[in-house]
Protein backbone atom coordinates (compact mmCIF):
# COMPACT_ATOMS: atom_id res chain seq x y z
CA UNK A 1 0.00 0.00 0.00
CA UNK A 2 1.44 3.36 -1.06
CA UNK A 3 1.44 6.10 1.56
CA UNK A 4 1.09 9.69 0.57
CA UNK A 5 1.64 12.76 2.74
CA UNK A 6 -0.84 15.59 2.49
CA UNK A 7 -1.03 19.09 3.91
CA UNK A 8 -4.20 19.82 5.86
CA UNK A 9 -6.09 22.94 4.88
CA UNK A 10 -7.56 24.48 8.02
CA UNK A 11 -10.39 26.53 6.60
CA UNK A 12 -11.80 27.87 9.88
CA UNK A 13 -11.14 28.01 13.64
CA UNK A 14 -12.30 24.97 15.61
CA UNK A 15 -14.84 27.14 17.44
CA UNK A 16 -16.82 27.37 14.18
CA UNK A 17 -17.13 23.57 13.92
CA UNK A 18 -20.46 22.46 15.47
CA UNK A 19 -19.62 20.63 18.73
CA UNK A 20 -22.16 18.94 21.03
CA UNK A 21 -21.92 17.19 24.38
CA UNK A 22 -22.34 13.41 24.02
CA UNK A 23 -24.43 13.40 27.20
CA UNK A 24 -26.74 16.07 25.79
CA UNK A 25 -27.25 13.98 22.66
CA UNK A 26 -28.14 10.86 24.68
CA UNK A 27 -30.49 12.87 26.85
CA UNK A 28 -32.05 14.33 23.72
CA UNK A 29 -31.25 17.84 24.78
CA UNK A 30 -29.95 18.41 21.23
CA UNK A 31 -32.24 18.51 18.21
CA UNK A 32 -31.39 15.23 16.44
CA UNK A 33 -32.38 16.80 13.13
CA UNK A 34 -29.15 18.78 13.25
CA UNK A 35 -27.22 15.51 12.90
CA UNK A 36 -29.22 14.16 9.99
CA UNK A 37 -27.12 13.43 6.88
CA UNK A 38 -24.01 14.57 8.73
CA UNK A 39 -20.77 12.76 9.53
CA UNK A 40 -20.49 12.65 13.28
CA UNK A 41 -17.13 12.34 15.00
CA UNK A 42 -16.95 11.24 18.60
CA UNK A 43 -13.99 12.24 20.69
CA UNK A 44 -12.72 13.94 23.81
CA UNK A 45 -12.84 17.74 24.02
CA UNK A 46 -12.50 18.25 27.75
CA UNK A 47 -9.56 20.52 28.62
CA UNK A 48 -8.27 18.04 31.16
CA UNK A 49 -7.81 15.22 28.63
CA UNK A 50 -4.39 14.40 27.21
CA UNK A 51 -5.20 15.10 23.57
CA UNK A 52 -3.65 18.51 22.86
CA UNK A 53 -3.61 20.04 19.40
CA UNK A 54 -2.38 23.27 17.82
CA UNK A 55 -3.90 24.63 14.64
CA UNK A 56 -3.10 27.71 12.53
CA UNK A 57 -6.03 29.39 14.30
CA UNK A 58 -5.43 28.10 17.85
CA UNK A 59 -1.90 28.18 19.16
CA UNK A 60 -2.80 27.90 22.86
CA UNK A 61 -3.14 24.31 24.01
CA UNK A 62 -5.43 22.54 24.67
CA UNK A 63 -7.42 22.21 21.46
CA UNK A 64 -8.67 18.65 21.12
CA UNK A 65 -7.22 16.32 18.53
CA UNK A 66 -10.67 15.29 17.30
CA UNK A 67 -10.72 18.44 15.22
CA UNK A 68 -7.84 17.23 13.06
CA UNK A 69 -10.05 14.36 11.95
CA UNK A 70 -12.77 16.86 11.10
CA UNK A 71 -10.34 18.92 9.03
CA UNK A 72 -9.13 15.84 7.15
CA UNK A 73 -12.69 14.75 6.37
CA UNK A 74 -13.51 18.26 5.16
CA UNK A 75 -10.45 18.28 2.88
CA UNK A 76 -11.30 14.82 1.50
CA UNK A 77 -14.94 15.59 0.82
CA UNK A 78 -14.23 19.01 -0.74
CA UNK A 79 -10.94 18.10 -2.41
CA UNK A 80 -9.15 21.02 -0.82
CA UNK A 81 -5.98 19.69 0.70
CA UNK A 82 -3.20 22.26 0.47
CA UNK A 83 -1.02 22.04 -2.61
CA UNK A 84 2.65 22.96 -2.44
CA UNK A 85 5.04 23.69 -5.25
CA UNK A 86 7.79 21.12 -5.82
CA UNK A 87 11.08 22.28 -4.32
CA UNK A 88 12.54 22.72 -7.81
CA UNK A 89 9.79 25.22 -8.64
CA UNK A 90 10.29 27.01 -5.33
CA UNK A 91 13.96 27.53 -6.16
CA UNK A 92 13.00 28.77 -9.64
CA UNK A 93 10.42 31.08 -8.04
CA UNK A 94 13.03 32.55 -5.69
CA UNK A 95 15.39 33.07 -8.63
CA UNK A 96 12.68 34.85 -10.62
CA UNK A 97 11.68 36.98 -7.61
CA UNK A 98 15.34 37.93 -6.99
CA UNK A 99 16.03 38.87 -10.62
CA UNK A 100 12.74 40.74 -11.03
CA UNK A 101 13.24 42.61 -7.77
CA UNK A 102 16.74 43.64 -8.82
CA UNK A 103 15.53 44.84 -12.23
CA UNK A 104 12.73 46.87 -10.65
CA UNK A 105 14.83 48.37 -7.86
CA UNK A 106 18.04 49.20 -9.76
CA UNK A 107 16.86 52.26 -11.75
CA UNK A 108 14.99 53.77 -8.81
CA UNK A 109 16.17 56.60 -6.61
CA UNK A 110 16.84 55.93 -2.92
CA UNK A 111 13.45 57.01 -1.55
CA UNK A 112 11.58 55.27 -4.36
CA UNK A 113 13.56 52.13 -3.61
CA UNK A 114 12.62 52.26 0.08
CA UNK A 115 8.97 52.67 -0.88
CA UNK A 116 9.13 49.66 -3.20
CA UNK A 117 10.89 47.56 -0.55
CA UNK A 118 7.87 48.17 1.65
CA UNK A 119 5.34 47.66 -1.13
CA UNK A 120 6.73 44.58 -2.93
CA UNK A 121 6.64 42.27 0.15
CA UNK A 122 3.07 43.42 0.81
CA UNK A 123 2.12 42.61 -2.78
CA UNK A 124 3.68 39.15 -2.56
CA UNK A 125 1.97 38.46 0.77
CA UNK A 126 -1.37 39.46 -0.78
CA UNK A 127 -0.76 37.16 -3.76
CA UNK A 128 0.05 34.29 -1.40
CA UNK A 129 -3.16 34.81 0.56
CA UNK A 130 -5.17 35.06 -2.68
CA UNK A 131 -3.64 31.84 -4.04
CA UNK A 132 -4.39 30.05 -0.77
CA UNK A 133 -7.98 31.26 -0.62
CA UNK A 134 -8.89 30.61 -4.26
CA UNK A 135 -6.81 27.63 -5.37
CA UNK A 136 -5.57 26.06 -2.07
CA UNK A 137 -2.03 26.65 -3.33
CA UNK A 138 0.44 27.28 -0.55
CA UNK A 139 3.07 29.61 -1.94
CA UNK A 140 6.21 30.26 0.10
CA UNK A 141 5.97 33.64 1.80
CA UNK A 142 8.97 34.31 4.01
CA UNK A 143 11.61 33.19 1.50
CA UNK A 144 10.43 35.40 -1.42
CA UNK A 145 9.98 38.40 0.88
CA UNK A 146 13.48 37.79 2.25
CA UNK A 147 14.77 37.51 -1.32
CA UNK A 148 13.19 40.86 -2.22
CA UNK A 149 14.81 42.52 0.79
CA UNK A 150 18.17 40.93 -0.03
CA UNK A 151 17.85 42.14 -3.63
CA UNK A 152 17.23 45.66 -2.31
CA UNK A 153 20.27 45.48 -0.03
CA UNK A 154 22.37 44.09 -2.88
CA UNK A 155 21.30 46.87 -5.26
CA UNK A 156 21.98 49.52 -2.62
CA UNK A 157 25.39 48.05 -1.81
CA UNK A 158 26.37 47.81 -5.48
CA UNK A 159 25.22 51.38 -6.09
CA UNK A 160 27.18 52.63 -3.11
CA UNK A 161 30.26 50.75 -4.31
CA UNK A 162 29.97 52.22 -7.81
CA UNK A 163 29.36 55.67 -6.38
CA UNK A 164 32.48 55.45 -4.24
CA UNK A 165 34.53 54.27 -7.22
CA UNK A 166 33.18 56.98 -9.48
CA UNK A 167 33.32 59.81 -6.98
CA UNK A 168 36.83 58.84 -5.87
CA UNK A 169 37.96 59.64 -9.41
CA UNK A 170 36.31 63.06 -9.34
CA UNK A 171 36.71 64.02 -5.68
CA UNK A 172 37.84 67.65 -5.44
CA UNK A 173 38.08 67.81 -9.24
CA UNK A 174 34.60 69.05 -10.02
CA UNK A 175 31.88 71.19 -8.49
CA UNK A 176 29.13 69.59 -6.41
CA UNK A 177 26.61 70.23 -9.19
CA UNK A 178 28.84 68.49 -11.74
CA UNK A 179 29.43 65.58 -9.36
CA UNK A 180 25.66 65.14 -8.97
CA UNK A 181 25.24 65.27 -12.75
CA UNK A 182 27.98 62.66 -13.18
CA UNK A 183 26.25 60.32 -10.76
CA UNK A 184 22.83 60.78 -12.36
CA UNK A 185 24.28 59.89 -15.76
CA UNK A 186 26.77 57.29 -14.54
CA UNK A 187 25.60 54.61 -16.98
CA UNK A 188 26.87 56.75 -19.87
CA UNK A 189 30.46 56.79 -18.64
CA UNK A 190 30.91 54.07 -16.02
CA UNK A 191 31.60 50.51 -17.15
CA UNK A 192 33.17 47.61 -15.27
CA UNK A 193 34.47 49.80 -12.47
CA UNK A 194 36.27 52.15 -14.84
CA UNK A 195 35.55 55.12 -17.04
CA UNK A 196 35.57 54.00 -20.66
CA UNK A 197 38.06 55.69 -22.97
CA UNK A 198 36.36 58.10 -25.36
CA UNK A 199 37.45 60.61 -27.97
CA UNK A 200 36.03 64.07 -27.28
CA UNK A 201 36.49 67.62 -28.46
CA UNK A 202 37.28 69.64 -25.34
CA UNK A 203 38.92 72.88 -24.31
CA UNK A 204 42.09 72.52 -22.25
CA UNK A 205 43.37 75.25 -19.92
CA UNK A 206 46.92 75.34 -18.57
CA UNK A 207 48.12 77.85 -15.98
CA UNK A 208 51.49 78.22 -14.30
CA UNK A 209 53.04 80.50 -11.67
CA UNK A 210 55.77 82.78 -12.95
CA UNK A 211 59.19 82.49 -11.18
CA UNK A 212 57.90 79.72 -8.92
CA UNK A 213 61.34 78.20 -8.47
CA UNK A 214 62.79 81.50 -7.21
CA UNK A 215 59.82 81.99 -4.85
CA UNK A 216 60.02 78.46 -3.46
CA UNK A 217 63.73 78.83 -2.65
CA UNK A 218 62.95 81.76 -0.34
CA UNK A 219 60.22 80.02 1.69
CA UNK A 220 60.17 77.26 4.28
CA UNK A 221 58.52 74.00 3.07
CA UNK A 222 55.48 74.32 5.34
CA UNK A 223 54.94 77.97 4.44
CA UNK A 224 55.39 77.18 0.75
CA UNK A 225 52.85 74.36 0.84
CA UNK A 226 50.25 76.48 2.62
CA UNK A 227 50.87 79.39 0.24
CA UNK A 228 50.58 77.12 -2.80
CA UNK A 229 47.44 75.35 -1.57
CA UNK A 230 45.74 78.69 -0.96
CA UNK A 231 46.46 79.66 -4.56
CA UNK A 232 45.43 76.28 -6.03
CA UNK A 233 42.18 76.29 -4.05
CA UNK A 234 41.26 79.74 -5.36
CA UNK A 235 42.00 78.70 -8.95
CA UNK A 236 39.99 75.48 -8.58
CA UNK A 237 36.95 77.50 -7.47
CA UNK A 238 37.10 79.52 -10.68
CA UNK A 239 37.29 76.36 -12.77
CA UNK A 240 34.37 74.70 -10.94
CA UNK A 241 32.21 77.82 -11.18
CA UNK A 242 32.52 77.65 -14.97
CA UNK A 243 31.74 73.91 -15.29
CA UNK A 244 35.35 72.84 -15.68
CA UNK A 245 37.15 69.80 -14.28
CA UNK A 246 40.53 69.97 -12.62
CA UNK A 247 42.47 67.26 -14.45
CA UNK A 248 45.62 67.50 -12.38
CA UNK A 249 48.02 69.71 -10.46
CA UNK A 250 51.59 69.52 -11.74
CA UNK A 251 53.54 71.26 -9.03
CA UNK A 252 52.40 74.87 -9.32
CA UNK A 253 50.68 74.25 -12.67
CA UNK A 254 46.94 73.68 -13.05
CA UNK A 255 45.46 71.68 -15.90
CA UNK A 256 41.69 72.05 -16.32
CA UNK A 257 39.39 70.61 -18.96
CA UNK A 258 36.04 71.91 -20.15
CA UNK A 259 33.70 69.48 -21.89
CA UNK A 260 34.10 66.31 -19.81
CA UNK A 261 33.07 63.75 -18.70
CA UNK A 262 30.11 63.80 -21.12
CA UNK A 263 30.99 64.00 -24.78
CA UNK A 264 29.77 67.19 -26.43
CA UNK A 265 29.04 66.64 -30.11
CA UNK A 266 27.01 69.72 -31.01
CA UNK A 267 28.83 72.81 -32.23
CA UNK A 268 27.09 75.07 -29.72
CA UNK A 269 28.10 72.76 -26.85
CA UNK A 270 31.74 72.78 -27.90
CA UNK A 271 31.62 76.55 -28.33
CA UNK A 272 30.18 76.95 -24.84
CA UNK A 273 33.05 74.86 -23.43
CA UNK A 274 35.54 77.26 -25.01
CA UNK A 275 33.63 80.28 -23.65
CA UNK A 276 33.55 78.67 -20.20
CA UNK A 277 37.31 78.07 -20.30
CA UNK A 278 38.14 81.68 -21.22
CA UNK A 279 35.63 82.95 -18.66
CA UNK A 280 37.31 80.79 -16.03
CA UNK A 281 40.72 82.16 -17.06
CA UNK A 282 39.48 85.75 -16.69
CA UNK A 283 37.97 84.86 -13.30
CA UNK A 284 41.29 83.33 -12.21
CA UNK A 285 43.15 86.53 -12.99
CA UNK A 286 40.52 88.63 -11.19
CA UNK A 287 40.61 86.41 -8.12
CA UNK A 288 44.39 86.55 -8.17
CA UNK A 289 44.26 90.33 -7.73
CA UNK A 290 42.26 89.91 -4.51
CA UNK A 291 44.48 87.05 -3.36
CA UNK A 292 47.64 89.08 -3.92
CA UNK A 293 46.31 91.88 -1.70
CA UNK A 294 45.90 89.37 1.13
CA UNK A 295 49.33 87.91 0.48
CA UNK A 296 50.91 91.37 0.63
CA UNK A 297 49.24 91.99 3.98
CA UNK A 298 50.69 88.71 5.25
CA UNK A 299 54.13 89.58 3.93
CA UNK A 300 54.11 86.66 1.50
CA UNK A 301 55.15 86.64 -2.18
CA UNK A 302 52.50 87.71 -4.67
CA UNK A 303 51.55 85.42 -7.55
CA UNK A 304 51.51 86.06 -11.28
CA UNK A 305 50.39 83.40 -13.73
CA UNK A 306 50.23 82.71 -17.44
CA UNK A 307 47.34 80.82 -19.03
CA UNK A 308 47.14 78.93 -22.31
CA UNK A 309 43.88 77.63 -23.81
CA UNK A 310 43.28 75.35 -26.79
CA UNK A 311 40.27 73.47 -28.16
CA UNK A 312 40.87 70.12 -29.79
CA UNK A 313 40.44 66.34 -29.84
CA UNK A 314 41.58 64.32 -26.83
CA UNK A 315 41.19 60.82 -25.42
CA UNK A 316 39.42 60.74 -22.05
CA UNK A 317 39.38 57.81 -19.63
CA UNK A 318 40.86 55.98 -16.67
CA UNK A 319 44.64 55.86 -16.63
CA UNK A 320 46.73 53.65 -14.37
CA UNK A 321 46.72 50.18 -12.85
CA UNK A 322 44.06 48.33 -10.89
CA UNK A 323 45.41 49.69 -7.58
CA UNK A 324 45.57 53.34 -8.63
CA UNK A 325 43.44 54.94 -11.32
CA UNK A 326 43.26 58.54 -12.44
CA UNK A 327 40.71 60.14 -14.73
CA UNK A 328 42.62 62.20 -17.27
CA UNK A 329 42.83 63.39 -20.85
CA UNK A 330 45.53 62.69 -23.41
CA UNK A 331 46.22 64.14 -26.81
CA UNK A 332 47.92 66.85 -28.81
CA UNK A 333 45.39 69.43 -27.61
CA UNK A 334 46.93 69.16 -24.14
CA UNK A 335 50.42 69.81 -25.52
CA UNK A 336 49.21 72.83 -27.49
CA UNK A 337 47.58 74.40 -24.41
CA UNK A 338 50.78 73.82 -22.40
CA UNK A 339 52.87 75.42 -25.13
CA UNK A 340 50.59 78.46 -25.26
CA UNK A 341 50.92 78.85 -21.50
CA UNK A 342 54.72 78.87 -21.79
CA UNK A 343 54.53 81.40 -24.61
CA UNK A 344 53.13 83.96 -22.14
CA UNK A 345 56.64 84.41 -20.71
CA UNK A 346 57.74 86.05 -23.95
CA UNK A 347 54.46 87.84 -24.70
CA UNK A 348 54.10 90.71 -22.27
CA UNK A 349 53.20 93.61 -24.55
CA UNK A 350 49.51 93.86 -25.41
CA UNK A 351 48.72 90.87 -23.24
CA UNK A 352 47.29 92.40 -20.04
CA UNK A 353 45.66 89.23 -18.73
CA UNK A 354 48.44 86.80 -19.72
CA UNK A 355 45.85 84.62 -21.47
CA UNK A 356 46.73 83.15 -24.85
CA UNK A 357 44.32 81.13 -26.99
CA UNK A 358 44.77 79.16 -30.18
CA UNK A 359 43.12 79.95 -33.51
CA UNK A 360 40.57 77.17 -32.91
CA UNK A 361 39.50 78.57 -29.55
CA UNK A 362 39.53 82.13 -30.91
CA UNK A 363 36.94 81.27 -33.56
CA UNK A 364 34.58 80.11 -30.81
CA UNK A 365 35.02 82.98 -28.36
CA UNK A 366 35.56 85.98 -30.64
CA UNK A 367 31.96 87.18 -30.26
CA UNK A 368 32.27 87.22 -26.48
CA UNK A 369 35.78 88.54 -25.83
CA UNK A 370 38.04 91.22 -27.24
CA UNK A 371 41.24 89.70 -28.50
CA UNK A 372 44.45 90.74 -30.18
CA UNK A 373 46.71 88.88 -32.56
CA UNK A 374 50.05 87.92 -31.03
CA UNK A 375 52.02 85.88 -33.53
CA UNK A 376 51.88 82.89 -35.83
CA UNK A 377 53.27 79.58 -34.67
CA UNK A 378 53.86 76.26 -36.31
CA UNK A 379 52.12 73.84 -34.00
CA UNK A 380 53.20 70.25 -33.67
CA UNK A 381 51.78 68.01 -36.39
CA UNK A 382 50.61 70.89 -38.55
CA UNK A 383 52.15 72.27 -41.70
CA UNK A 384 50.51 75.68 -41.69
CA UNK A 385 51.26 78.47 -39.26
CA UNK A 386 48.55 79.10 -36.65
CA UNK A 387 47.72 82.52 -35.26
CA UNK A 388 47.84 82.93 -31.48
CA UNK A 389 45.59 85.47 -29.78
CA UNK A 390 45.61 87.13 -26.38
CA UNK A 391 42.34 87.83 -24.56
CA UNK A 392 42.08 91.43 -23.41
CA UNK A 393 38.52 92.02 -22.26
CA UNK A 394 35.00 90.60 -22.03
CA UNK A 395 32.68 92.01 -24.68
CA UNK A 396 29.44 91.21 -22.91
CA UNK A 397 28.09 89.19 -20.01
CA UNK A 398 28.94 85.57 -20.66
CA UNK A 399 26.54 82.99 -19.28
CA UNK A 400 28.81 80.06 -18.64
CA UNK A 401 26.15 78.00 -16.94
CA UNK A 402 24.04 77.35 -20.01
CA UNK A 403 23.36 73.65 -20.43
CA UNK A 404 22.65 72.00 -23.73
Characterise this structure.
- The protein has three domains: 14-81, no CATH class; 84-167, no CATH class; 194-394, Alpha-Beta Plaits, CATH 3.30.70.1230.
- Helix content is 45%, strand content 19%.
- The chain is built from twelve helices and twelve strands.
- The protein has helices at 22-26, 66-78, 87-105, 110-135, 142-170, 176-184, 186-189, 212-217, 221-241, 267-297, 332-343, 359-365; strands spanning 83-84, 137-138, 190-191, 194-195, 198-209, 245-250, 253-258, 305-321, 324-330, 355-357, 369-377, 386-394.
- The strands form three sheets. Strands 5, 6, 7, 8, 9, 10, 11 and 12 form an eight-stranded mixed β-sheet that branches. A two-stranded parallel sheet has the order 1-2.
- Helix 4 runs antiparallel to helix 5 (142-170) and helix 9 (221-241) runs antiparallel to helix 10.
- The longest helix has 31 residues, at 267-297.
- Residues 398-404 have low confidence and may be disordered.
List low-confidence stretches. Answer: 398-404
Structural class: alpha+beta
The N- to C-terminal Cα distance equals 79 Å
What is the overall silhouette?
A: rod-shaped
Q: How many structural domains can be distinguished in the coordinates?
A: 3
For the record, the CATH architecture of the largest domain stands as 2-Layer Sandwich
- Largest sheet descriptor: 8 strands, mixed
> How many β-strand stretches?
12
- CATH H-level superfamily of the largest domain: Nucleotide cyclase, GGDEF domain
List keywords for this structure.
single chain; 404 residues; alpha+beta; Alpha-Beta Plaits; 3 domains; eight-stranded mixed sheet; two-stranded parallel ribbon; 12 helices; 19% strand; rod-shaped; disordered C terminus
Amino acid sequence: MNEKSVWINWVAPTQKIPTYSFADVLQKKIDIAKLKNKIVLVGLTATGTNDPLKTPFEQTVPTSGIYIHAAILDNLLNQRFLRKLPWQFELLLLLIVGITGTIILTPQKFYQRILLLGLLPLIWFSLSVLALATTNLWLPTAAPIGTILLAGLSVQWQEQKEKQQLMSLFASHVSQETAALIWQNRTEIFQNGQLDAKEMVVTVLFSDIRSFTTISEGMKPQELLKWLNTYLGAMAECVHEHDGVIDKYIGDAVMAVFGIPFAHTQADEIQQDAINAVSAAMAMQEKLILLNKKLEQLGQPTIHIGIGIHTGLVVVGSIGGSQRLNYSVLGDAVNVAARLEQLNKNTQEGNPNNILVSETTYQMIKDNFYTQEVQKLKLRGRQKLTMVYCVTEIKSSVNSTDKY
